[in-house]
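[job 4471] stage=fold_predict status=RUNNING
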Amino acid sequence: METNLTFSQLKKIYSTCEDLGINWREAAEKISENETDFEIDNYRFISESEIDLIQQNELKNDPYILGCFNDWFIADNTDLSLDIVQTLQKESQYEALGNHIIDNGFLEDMQQEYAHADGYGHHFSSYDSNTIEDLIGIDSDTSYYIFRTN
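[job 4471] inference complete, writing structure tokens
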């Protein structure tokens, strides 16, 4: 289902994309098609309404990375003690830690805490770990985070 963008919405998309040096028409087309996650010219756009789920899915698909989180952070957000986490990490059991997080239902809360503590840029922006501060707010229900990926 396509959304017809208003002139003011198109202006906002144009302005943001011009500042970034990317193709505003392509961004407007993807947004009007209600795409929730897309990339244009080394910038990733992710819908504010879907970003937590997208991050959870990406973390779920890489248990090794989950197990590499700070030991205290894992201990604070799971049923594991700090000593157990430190021992497993010392033994390079990162994937086992990540699988424990996923298999025991800690992923959603851990992702929420991760996003709250570090923001989304650290995860989604491989270029500089930043989030473009200016969300493209299309309307009260549709906003996009933008991340530089390269």
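[job 4471] summary: Strands lie at 37-40, 43-47, 132-139, 142-148.
[job 4471] exit 0
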